Amino acid sequence: GQGHVLDLSSSKTLVLLMQLTFLLLTHSFAINLGHKSSDLAFHFNPRFKESVIVCNSLCSNSWQQEQRDKHFIFHRGSTVKLVVEFLGDKFLVKLPDGHEVEFPNRHGYDKISYLNIHGGFKVTSFKM
């Protein structure tokens, strides 16, 4: 599954509601938010092989310091609902079990204009 949405007209906040069904052979998936593909304020990247959620930011094609969260609830073949929020000073991902993954807005962006989601899944629902 892959999707691009460019030129989002978001204000100080943005809320994405998505339901994803993971493929049986998936290794990872990513949700990227920022200004363009080379400048990502938020990279949300659950990795099935490592059972870890990696969050990071990308500045002029250069990855910054990774933040790793071992709270891994994703399973191949399962369907999950995620809430991804841009709250100005941080990003927040609400997992189905109530766990929240927070990541600071290191770039200081006041709005998000680029969204990219890709990896081993099918999008079964998407709302903004």
Automatic annotation (TrEMBL):
Keyword terms, alphabetized: Lectin
Domain Galectin: 1-128
Name of the featured protein: Galectin
Gene Ontology molecular function, alphabetical: carbohydrate binding
Taxonomic superkingdom: Eukaryota
Transmembrane segments: none
Pfam families reported in the protein's UniProt record: Gal-bind_lectin
Species per Swiss-Prot/TrEMBL record: Odontophorus gujanensis (marbled wood quail)
SUPFAM superfamilies on file: Concanavalin A-like lectins/glucanases
